[in-house]
Amino acid sequence: MNPDNDPQPWQVDTSEYIHQLPWFTVRKDAIRMENGGSIPNYFIFEYPDWVNVVAVTTEGNVVLIRQYRHGIAGVHYELCAGVIDLGEDPLVAAQRELLEETGFGGGNWQPLMTLSVNPGTHNNLTYAFLATGVEPRQAQHLEKTEEITVHVVSPERAREIINNSEMIQALHVAPLLKYLSETPGGPARFSGL
C-alpha cells in the first residue's frame, strides 16, 4: 500500500540516446518535477533484466561460483546469474543459467526476491530465485567469454563467505543472506547483524 503523500513520477520533457551498444546503452532525459524543479541532464543506463539463483543441493549445501570481474579486477564468490533473453520468462532464464554455469538442475523453484542494482540510474530488475534439491545434471556449458569454477559449500561456509567479504556483489549477497537468515543458525551467525 502506498501512502497518500508519495512523491509523484517525474515528467520527461525530452529523451535521447547518448550511446547504444548491447552492454552500454545510456539515455539522457530532461526531467520536470511536480514541485517545479527540473533536471536537464538525467542519465539512465539501460540493461535487460537479470536473474540469479540461490541453489541448494539435496544435501543442503549451497552452489556458488567464482569468476574474474574486470570492473574490480578481482575474483570473488557469486551466485549463478545471467541475462534474461528477450521474451524469456525469468524462471526459465534462471533454470537455464544454473544448468549452463554449474551443471546443476532439477529441484523445486520459487521466487525469492526482486532487486534493483540502482533504481536511480538503472532501468532493469534482477529476479532472484531459490532452487532447493538441485543435483548435478551435466557438465558446465560455458560461453567463450566465461571462465567459471563451481563451489558447493555448507551453509556455515556461505555465512563465512559473506562475513569475510568474499562475496561482494550486492545483488548476490542480498538473496543469499535472505535464504541463510531463514535457515537454522540464521541471523545470529552473521557478524554484521
Keywords:
Nucleoside Triphosphate Pyrophosphohydrolase; 2 domains; eight-stranded mixed sheet; alpha+beta; 3 helices; single chain
Topology:
Elements: E1 11-21, E2 24-32, E3 38-46, E4 50-57, E5 62-69, E6 74-78, E7 80-83, H1 90-102, E8 104-105, E9 108-115, E10 126-136, E11 148-153, H2 155-163, H3 170-181
Parallel strand pairs: 4-10
Antiparallel strand pairs: 1-2, 2-3, 4-5, 4-7, 5-6, 5-11, 8-10, 9-10
What does this structure look like?
This protein is an alpha+beta fold. It has 3 helices and 11 strands. The chain has helices at residues 90-102, 155-163, 170-181, and strands spanning 11-21, 24-32, 38-46, 50-57, 62-69, 74-78, 80-83, 104-105, 108-115, 126-136, 148-153. Helix 2 crosses helix 3 (170-181). The chain is globular, with a radius of gyration of 19 Å. The protein starts with 10 loop residues before the first strand and ends in a 12-residue tail after the last helix. The model has no long low-confidence stretch (mean pLDDT 94). This is GDP-mannose pyrophosphatase. Keywords: Hydrolase.
Quick overview:
By secondary structure, the protein is an alpha+beta fold. The chain has three helices and eleven strands; from the N terminus they run E-E-E-E-E-E-E-H-E-E-E-E-H-H. The longest helix has 13 residues, at 90-102.
**The CATH C-level class name of the largest domain:** Alpha Beta
Query: How far apart are the first and last residues' alpha carbons, in Å?
Result: 28 Å
Which structural class should the secondary elements be placed in?
alpha+beta
Shape summary: globular
Gyration radius (Cα, Å) is: 19 Å
Counting structural domains, the number is 2
Give me the CATH fold name of the largest domain: Nucleoside Triphosphate Pyrophosphohydrolase
Identify low-pLDDT runs: none
Q: Determine the fraction of residues in helical runs and give it as a percent range.
A: 10-25%
Q: How do the SSEs run, as a string of H and E? A: EEEEEEEHEEEEHH
Number of helices: 3
Strand percent estimate:
35-45%
Largest sheet, described in full?
8 strands, mixed
CATH architecture of the largest domain: Alpha-Beta Complex
